[in-house]
Amino acid sequence: MVENNTKSSIRLFGLLSSTSPNKIFFAILLGSLAGLAYAIIVPLILLSLQPELSRLMQPEFSSSYWLLGVFEISNPAQALFFFSVVMFILLCRVISESLIAQSSIDATVGLRKMLYARIIQLPIQKLEQIGPSRLLTALNNDIGQISVGASVMPNILVASTTIFGMFGFLIYLKLEVFLFIIWVIVFGALTYRIPLLFGRKYMSKARNSFDGIQEGMRGLVYGAKELKLNQHRQHAYLTENIHSFEHRFSVAQKHGRTLLSLGMNYGTLISFFAIGIVTYVMANYYVLSQQSLLGVVMVLLYLTGPVSTVMNLMSSIIMARVGARKLDALLSEMPIEASGKVTEVADCQQLRVTGVEYTYSGLKSEDHAFHLGPIDLTIHRGDVTYLVGGNGSGKTTLAKLLSLHYIPEKGHVYFDDQVVNDDNRQACRQQISAIYSDFYLFTKLFGLSSEELDARAVLSLKQLGLEGKVTIKDGEFSSTDLSAGQKKRLALLVTYLEDRSIYVFDEWAADQDPGFKEIFYYNILPELKKRNKMVIVITHDDRYFHLADKLVKMENGKILEEVTGENVQLSQAHSAVGAGTSESSIENHGQEADGVI
Ligand SMILES: Nc1ncnc2c1ncn2[C@@H]1O[C@H](COP(=O)(O)OP(=O)(O)OP(=O)(O)O)[C@@H](O)[C@H]1O
């Protein structure tokens, strides 16, 4: 049914390096060079301040002077070297950071594109289960955090290079001090992880509450009308739902941030503990000249910069790892529908289902999950088939199986003699056009646009009573801010322009005015039949049942009765008469809407 979902896990650094390996290689190279150059700055300053510290210093460094305008420059070669190093750092860092920024933008866009592709490849039933809130949070929240985290990884490497460079200088100054600092760093690195570990747990909790907040926001926007009319409901919805998620979010965030702050500051201040111990304790046990002690303290002070950079960036990494785990979990719940080897199938003349069964899974209570089938049904090209039955009888579910949106758990769907399977499902779907009650109207005729199409669309807009409401240019609608009925007419126009073999309409006429209802049943459907289309109509409009070629009555997920030919008219004659549908009124509508689409 679906391809096994390969267990992928998002690695922050891998994300950047896989998007643009060369850029990242150069960014790290330049960043590391900048880091090493940084590490040279302290010895250089120390050399210029205390010539006796230098074992390598050339005599001319301390003896010569240059005059630059009114400025007197001592140690010109050393000064030139110093400023060259600063310029080198500037250049390396700017290039390195801009390369990282570019790679991080590419990685973010790449992640988003990957999510779009996965949503497209997601079977409809799974998409309905996951719901839009989780997908939107992944897109807006998690991917943003992942890309921030990934983009700071190279900065951590750069800061680490500076730290290692400074270590080299520290060894040169005093090996014992270096060993002590290493011990302090190992101790600090181990202990500072404790608050970070708990901090991350709280941040994960906060992230989980965010899904609830997002869902709550949807209710606020889409349920605004219902909430406005009932203050009790409004209050209860806010306090019991959104506020309660917000409360959980804020408690978890506050705890998390406090712990992260504790961890970061502790980590940053570790170097000061080390400075204190070296200055006040170690100096009493080891032979450290005043100059060496000054050098060591300067190195340690200088180290606080890159050390705090590493510590501060760790919070971005932690947030990114929370986001990556959440996205990983979501992706592992998103099976990939088989793309199929067959690219085209012959025009379907007969759509047949045999022994088809379907259950809505993934519900909180599986006992109450609706079960459809087993169903056997054959639908022919050139026929208008009505699916009728009470609310919840399974008409839409069956239609979604016929339009190949749902994949049956038992039984088969046949396009003529071919069984629909993973190989040909995509190709078979290209013969179907459907308007379900939750249809989405795109603002453009994506994949359809052409000048000829525009001309056809303009003609049909007029015939569908949308002239003056919507215009179309280069396949794009001027507006989709229409009434519910008008939107459905525009959706009908889109399906008409697609010119598919099989049409599925789920209660299309439900929100049309009486005039257009008649046009739909008396003109549009017969015209599609005349064009030899296979038309499946879900309807509750019993006054039009007699117009069907086949009436499929459903109850409790099963077909109760199939009525064909004259029997359709006989069984529904009374309702047609009862509803006052006269031949003359039909004729009138026929003339009114002559040539509709
Ligand atoms: N996405 C879903 N997840 C779980 N259960 C669902 C889902 N969609 C529908 N159902 C259940 O399946 C049953 C049949 O629904 P279906 O939409 O097929 O009925 P219907 O005959 O088209 O109803 P109506 O005339 O009201 O549109 C219902 O009882 C409903 O609770």
Automatic annotation (TrEMBL):
Residues 24-319 form the ABC transmembrane type-1 domain. PANTHER family: ATP-BINDING CASSETTE SUB-FAMILY B, ATP-BINDING CASSETTE SUB-FAMILY B MEMBER 6. It is found in: Cell membrane. It comes from Microbulbifer taiwanensis. The chain crosses the membrane at residues 24-46, 66-92, 152-172, 178-198, 266-287, 293-318. It holds the Pfam family ABC_tran. This is Cyclic peptide export ABC transporter. InterPro entries: AAA+_ATPase (IPR003593), ABC1_TM_dom (IPR011527), ABC1_TM_sf (IPR036640), ABC_transporter-like_ATP-bd (IPR003439), ABC_transporter-like_CS (IPR017871), Cyc_pep_transpt_SyrD/YojI (IPR005898), P-loop_NTPase (IPR027417), Type_1_exporter (IPR039421). It is a multi-pass membrane protein. Residues 577-597 are annotated as: Disordered. Keywords: ATP-binding, Membrane, Nucleotide-binding, Transmembrane, Transmembrane helix. The lineage of its organism: Bacteria, Pseudomonadati, Pseudomonadota, Gammaproteobacteria, Cellvibrionales.
